[in-house]
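Customer ticket, subject: "Can you confirm the structure for dolichyl-phosphate-mannose--protein mannosyltransferase?"

Message body: Hello, I'm evaluating your service for our small team and ran a test protein. I'd like someone to confirm that this is what the system normally returns, since I don't have a reference to compare against.
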Amino acid sequence: QIFYQHNAEAPNLEQAFHRMAQMEPNLDHDVSWFLLPSYWAKMVVALISFLCFANSYDGDFVFDDSEAIINNKDLRAETPLGDLWYHDFWGSKLSSNTSHKSYRPLTVLTFRINYLFAGGFYPVGFHVINIILHCTISVLMVDVFSILLGGLQFSNKGRRLNLAPKSSLLAALLFAVHPVHTECVAGIVGRADLLCALFFLLSFLGYCKAFRENKEGHTFSVFWVLVSVVLGAIAMLCKEQGITILGLNAVFDALVINKINLLEFIRKLLYKDKALENAGLLRKGLLFRITLLMCGGAGILYIRWRIMGTGPPAFTEVDNPASFADSLFVRAINYNYYYSLNAWLLLCPWWLCFDWSMGCIPLIKSVSDWRIIALAALWFCLIGLICQALCSEDSHKRRILTLGLGFLIIPFLPASNLFFRVGFVVAERVIYLPSIGYCILFTYGFSLLSKQAKKKKILAVAVLGILLINVMRCALRSSQWRSEEQLFRSALSVCPLNAKVHYNVGKNLADKGNQSAAIKYYREAVRLNPKYVHAMNNLGNILKERNELHEAEELLSLAVQIQPDFAAAWMNLGIVQNSLRRFEEAEQSYWTAIKHRKKYPDCYYNLGRLYADLNRHIDALNAWRNATVLKPEHSLAWNNMIILLDNTGNLAQAEAVGREALELIPNDHSLMFSLANVLGKSQKYKESEALFLKAIKANPNAASYHGNLAVLYHRWGNLDLAKKHYEVSLKLDPMAPGTKENYNLLRRKLEQLQKKGG
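Agent reply: Thanks for trying us out. I re-ran your input and got the following:
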């Protein structure tokens, strides 16, 4: 290890540096709470944090999990590991205009490991890791809070002392059971916040380790300061907030290690007081350590900037309406209102929602809006706390309040809209780290009340009641995160004006086949947000399937008018126009979709169907071939090529395409069926029979499979087997076209054979 040697002229600096003042008041003196040995305290915290979220272990992939995990190609083994460093959290290239610039490669790496170990997308493993991470973080909080609330002091053997065992246990329990953490723990995507918090805390504890006195008598270790910087970098590679730990380490150094009175320091700095030179601050290495932290942070940000590029993330007005407001006043008022809502979620986490955008929180546009009261209350409390943190004569109070405010505010800064636009209004996940500051302030407030209260046990019971209510709230909220249906419906009462909530409820119902109910929610989503193009697109799709083509066309036309580069809506508009037999318009819509999304296999597939309807067979085959080039597993495109070539008498080419398709998708029974038909017509009966039987084994209830195999046996002269499969086909589908006629022909033939035999 490398150590920094202080100026030997500073008398007794080592002793002063490593010990808290003996006369300093201890927070635990006033806290009426349980006193447990460190090991048991951590066991209790781990157990309770596990109980809060245990029922989420077998939940589904919900909400953003689909995009970040199921549809993220970075999780699959065929994607090179190196690509993770150039892709965003959702698997898009960072250089893409559509990238959200959320750079979290280490989090994605853990998802990939989960996927590989599980052998596929099985959510249990993902959920279990999240629960374990939260339990680990909660246990670490016991040590972190013991330092923040009790100070940093080591024994003669270099072991860190816990000077606030009761307070640190209470604060850690408050953190472990806070319901606002449910999104991070029960939602798999929340792992970014959990991993970030883990390395955030390890960085802080590593920084504290730098001040353990060593055998040579040196006062701090450069090695551990550098380790802290590296851990901060790892935290940032899990989620952007991680970089803020470097600033908090600097604040901790100034307040706890150097015991700086900020107000006095600022006054002396402004007036160039010579006493500042004699304060011993620089000789204690504060400037050197802060320089290390600043250089480390600047280096990390520079490397991140070089990888990500300079382009800002792409967000829309519905994601964060206030950031698109023309008036600076409206932006400032609403940003502050959002801060007050985040503060309220920490104080009273009862109304929780998976998404707070799209009209959930209407903009404040006038000072006459009653919600201004929330801003006033927030700043009244903050200013009061800041004044106490700066001006109190009690150094112990100054230190705890400043650290509490620091941990509350600094980790929240990346989500504050102050430095760059963010893609949300309020997000419960981003207050996972700031809740550390809340727990510090709550515990300190509890100690002040305990000091004044005559019946301290009643106060302790009240706090215990809060903890129990939070445990029950966590369990309830975790159960809501187990499935999309429960999650989305739980939001209807919290954010009834949120168009995205109604959209997601509708989509969930549509996926389950309940189209009538889905239409109702999609219509409400469009009513709440008349520019909600995704709701229009999905509603148009359902109406198209219900043959309500004219309304579907109106909705899809409006969607592409609002968002001209919406490729999916252009394709769906083409499908509707094709159904209305307006073929030229349909072709134009398809090509417009392809212009906006060049790699669009489904659109090429639908374009091929249009050309097939127009008997433009060469164009149809080319379109389907493009679909299979872009998406080799596009079974429908392969099937249509085989069927078209079969119907036009190109059996050799149809056979070649069928064999090529089965090499790529060997277990697709529909391809086996199509190729078997071609081989039967080419009189390759044995191979055709084998494919038919394989297809039937994969899908035994397909009437057409049995019917066509019966036709093969009929042609082949194996009449008994033909009769058997005709009967199975008719049993499965009595109205199967052609099967009944073929069966009757076979029966007459069998009767004739019996007569001849007789």
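A couple of notes from the result: The chain is about 65% helix and 0% strand. The longest helix spans residues 123-150. Feel free to reply with more questions.
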